[in-house]
Amino acid sequence: MSEQHFPPTSRYAAVPTAELVQPDGERIVYLRRRFVPDPARYATVLEHTVQQGERIDQLAAAYLGDPELFWRLADANGVLHPLMLEEQARRLRLTLPEGMSGPAYA
Description:
- The structure is a single chain.
- With 106 residues, the chain is an alpha+beta fold.
- It has two helices and four strands; from the N terminus they run βββααβ.
């Protein structure tokens, strides 16, 4: 297997690779399938109502500190295509990272 070359903040950082060997001996390294987690596994911190013109990368920068973390918003809201989150008036869940629980009173 080949080493992954994704930064730790990438949605693919934890996805394992596999290797396919062609009949001519050429090795093709590929990512195994990444399953989108169940949104119920995320603890909601707050909600944001999307305003006209807001983009998912801008929201990720504002709330998560990094525009490239847009995929965390998509995962937490159960969508495969992040642009679906840009629909005006949509209620967007902002959550803790997967596996982190909120306070008992939340």
